[in-house]
User: Fold Short-chain fatty acyl-CoA regulator family protein from Parasedimentitalea psychrophila.
Amino acid sequence: MARDTLTGSRIRERRLFLDLRQAALARQVDISASYLNLIEHNRRRIGGKLLVDIAKALAVEPSMLTEGAEVALISALREAAADSGKPVAELDHADEFAGRFPGWAEVLAGEHRRVASLERTVQVLSDRLTHDPHLAASLHEVLSTAASIRSTASILAETGELEQEWRDRFHRNLNEDSRRLAESSKSLVSFLDQSNSGSVRRGVPQEEVEAFFTAHDYHFSSLEQGQASPEDLVAASAELQSDAARSTALSALKQYRADAEKMPLAAIALSLSRGFDPARLATEFHSDLPQVLRRLAALPEAVLGQPCGLVICDASGAVLLRKPIAGFSLPRFGAACPLWPLYAALARPLVPLRRQVIQHGRHAAGFDCLAIAWPQTPPDFDRDPVYRAVMLILPLAAVPVTPLAVGSNCRVCAGRDCVARREPSILDEEF
Assistant:
């Protein structure tokens, strides 16, 4: 039997594990015991609000009922095989391998995650050395101060007799410059080692915020249920090491709470059971489209019915928040591809855009991208508006016939003859 048809069996197994009678569970979710019996015997499909209610009553995530605990492991095995770059004849038997040798499957998936984490660390450190303005300024300060000390020391050592007044002045300069050098060096070392207390050295606030959201799978049930405040979540986080990261995460969580209060989980799950239509959701919940797109990206996959990605940027094009999705590469630093619908939306504020896209690469996949830009500040005759843009990324079942071809960013894009290219690619596929 197909995995996605075993939801009822998993509900029954979980109910029996909790020693909960069928009639009692039916009363909790406001359905009849006979209808629950049909569900548990896989004779009725289940989804939307009812699935969320049953999962809540059974104290599990909805995905555990719809997919089972082995799905994440099988997905990790398939990802490891795809990233190996070698043809794998037994890719269709990943579920059989995970079932027969779960221990070895866990080892393989864990090693793949470790390699991916190390690759991200190398990329972060490389980007920091190349692009980080704080690091460049600190190094410049250290080198300038060292040159000043060397010049003053040279004058004192190589010049003959100096008047007492000039000698005292050079000594004061040496003292002041050496103090500056000590402070600059201390600041630089502190910056490079700012996440030394954490288990992973991420280095920049955006990396810490992303790790924080990833640890919660971009969904904060305790915040939605009023059991915790944004301040509580930030204070309890092990991923947020720097003050800048905590401030950024706090701002994002406050926006998350406002979106959740406007569109509660149960209500939006019920609405989605009638079909996916962001414009209808905006009208139904008296919300604007940016708020709807942010809210959809924060929903559990079992409620939305599919995985999704999200990117939010400001008018400069800088990415403020990103939720990755498999197959659609999102750059961690620097500007992204200017052909993204996200940036086209900035040129047409408040006009929703929908584009079917593919990214250049060996494993091209189709995505449905919904984007819109909005003014973050209220209108004012004496002040220009500050715009932001948001893009929701949804996977397509098949590659579109006439898609918009985009990249990640120019340095790692294999696309040829691109009118938007800013710099040559470092990939051999192009040059």
